[in-house]
Structure formats: C-alpha cells, structure tokens
C-alpha cells in the first residue's frame, strides 16, 4: 500500500528534466495526478496532461536544458505547469501561438496555440538566444481567484530527497497579502515536519502583525529542529518584511532592484531575538521576491531587465531553474500587484 503523502509533500513542485522523449509521458502523468489531487473536476486532469505533454514536447523538439515544473497554485485552487529552457528562443512569437502552427517535422501541430486555448491562465516570455518560459494554469470553474495580486512559487527538495524542509504560503485579506517562506533546518522528514508546523501556525491568523506571527511560529516550532522564516506583507503602496535566518526579500521596481532585506540572526523554535519589521515604499507596478537560501542570493547582484520584468509565475520558475542550489531545499515566491 502506498504511503499517503504528508501535507508538506503535497505542496511540493514536481520537477521533470526534459532531455529525451521519454520525459513527455512522465510530465503528462505527473500533471494528471497533481490535477486530481488538487480536486480539479471532470476532464480537467486530462487537460492538465495535455498541457504538460505539449510543453514537454516543445522542449524535446526545440530547446536545450529544459525543465517542466508542475505544482498546485499558491492559493490551492488549481494546477500550474511551467516550462523553462535555455534554447534559442522564439523569433516569431505571435505566429507560434497560432493554433496548429509547428516547425517540427512529424509534430501534431497543436503546440503553444493549444496550450493557450486550453489553459485558464497563460503567460509566455521569450528572448532570442536565451530561451523561453511558459506558464499554463488550470483553475476550477467555481474557484475564487485572487484579484489584486499575481503570485508565483516553486518549492523543490534537495536532489535525491523525497521530503522538503522548505515551504511557502500566502493569505489574502481585504487590503493586503501576507506571504510566508520557511526553511526547516537540514533536510528530510524532520525538516519537513518543522516546515509543516510553521504552515499550520501561520494559517491560524495570518492577518496579525508580522512580529506576532514570527513569535507564534517560534512557539509552534519549539519541539522541532527549528527553521528560518520570513514573513512579508504587501499593501498597495508599501511592503513590510520580518524575518529570522536566511530567508531574503528583494523588491523589484522599474526593471531594477529597489531593496534587499535579510532576516535577523536566530533559529525559529530555538533562539529568536525580538522580531523587528522593516517597511519600504512600493512604486506602482513593483514586485517582491521572497526566497530561502536554496536560491543563490547572487541572482540579485546584476540581474537582467528581462528577468526582473517577468510575471511572477515565470520569475519564480526562472530563479529556480537558473539559481538553485541542488544540494539544498529551495523555495522562491514572487508577487506583483495585478
């Protein structure tokens, strides 16, 4: 009998490296399974499989260094399939999005046009010579969709690990969005249990002041191995950040890095100083990235304007694909006002 996945495992991103045709059915099966687990009704799990198959097939035919990421949406109301590659890019993007267009001999010809038609939400960016990023989301017809914020995330265990000590969550209120990234110390089951305890604590009252949220997390994690944690609250005109340990927040504005914010020294659950929140002003259109130290911090030292202007689902995938430490659990959460 198969073990039932833990809640921390349920929130993970499935990662399929696409370097051979054999990866296409693997991606399709993973997308169908994920769609069923998040409760998408009727034929939607099969639609998710079609999306993953088409995106993985495009990587096999046209790209190099490609990966498909499959995960529940941050708000839990659907599934997201994202493809990232280091291929030649798409020279004529409008033409490639025409249903039936293909440049590959033997292709069914559905390609990106079918992906855009089937998906509830679709985003694509390409840069000739550097690659393409595509996000296709399927959302249940009766799901309540967030209207004020665009959110993207990727949560990956260290290579060869089944359980992930990282986790993330978001909670929307009338006038703000509160985000959590937590990094349980070490790897494996014990780190995952610490992260799961943090998620349970966060969801009890995510609208409290940030310092109170961290203090409550500290109490909840006292009988675990502990964690680093960062809590971010976004308003229309400002961002508040409060963190303990190596969880970082980076504010993006106008195609540039506007602010970098790191956590205070300490371990949530073991030794925590009085949490201090920092507030920064947000310009219209600004975004924020919150990530664990499984994402190399140097990504923000000299990033391209192309990277910084990506919509949140593609930005999270790009950072995980290009700046991940594979020997560590890695989580990145990207947010921008809709």
TrEMBL record:
Pfam families named among the record's database cross-references: HATPase_c_2, SpoIIE
Domain PPM-type phosphatase: 150-337
PANTHER family recorded: PHOSPHOSERINE PHOSPHATASE RSBX
Name the UniProt record assigns to this protein: SpoIIE family protein phosphatase
Source species: Streptomyces taklimakanensis
């Amino acid at each position: 009998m198969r073990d039932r996945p833990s809640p921390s495992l349920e929130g993970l991103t499935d990662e399929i490296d696409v370097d051979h045709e054999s990866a296409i059915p693997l991606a399709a099966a993973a997308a169908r399974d994920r769609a069923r687990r998040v409760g998408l009704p009727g034929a939607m799990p099969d639609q998710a499989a079609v999306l993953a198959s088409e995106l993985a097939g495009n990587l096999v035919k046209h790209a190099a260094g490609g990966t498909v990421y499959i995960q529940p949406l941050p708000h839990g109301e659907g599934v997201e399939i994202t493809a990232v590659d280091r291929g030649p890019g798409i020279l004529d993007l409008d033409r490639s999005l025409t249903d039936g267009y293909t440049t590959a001999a033997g292709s069914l010809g559905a390609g990106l046009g079918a992906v855009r038609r089937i998906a509830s939400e679709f985003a694509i960016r390409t840069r000739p010579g550097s690659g393409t990023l595509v996000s296709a989301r399927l959302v249940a017809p009766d799901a309540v969709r967030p209207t004020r914020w665009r959110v993207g995330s990727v949560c990956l265990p260290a290579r060869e690990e089944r359980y992930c000590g990282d986790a993330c969550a978001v909670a929307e209120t009338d006038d703000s969005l509160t985000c959590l990234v937590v990094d349980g110390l070490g790897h494996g089951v014990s780190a995952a249990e610490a992260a799961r305890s943090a998620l349970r604590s966060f969801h009890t009252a995510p609208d409290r002041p940030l310092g109170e949220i961290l203090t409550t997390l500290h109490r909840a994690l006292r009988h675990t191995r502990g964690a680093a944690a960062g809590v971010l609250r976004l308003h229309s005109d400002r961002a508040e950040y409060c963190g303990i340990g190596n969880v970082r927040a980076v504010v993006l504005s106008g195609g540039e890095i506007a602010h970098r914010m790191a956590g205070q020294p300490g371990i949530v659950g073991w030794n925590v100083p009085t949490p201090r929140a920092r507030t920064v002003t947000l310009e219209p259109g600004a975004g924020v990235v919150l990530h664990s130290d499984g994402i190399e911090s140097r990504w923000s030292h000299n990033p391209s304007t192309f990277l910084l202007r990506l919509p949140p689902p593609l930005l999270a995938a790009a950072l995980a694909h290009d700046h991940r430490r594979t020997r560590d659990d890695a989580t990145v959460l990207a947010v921008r006002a809709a």
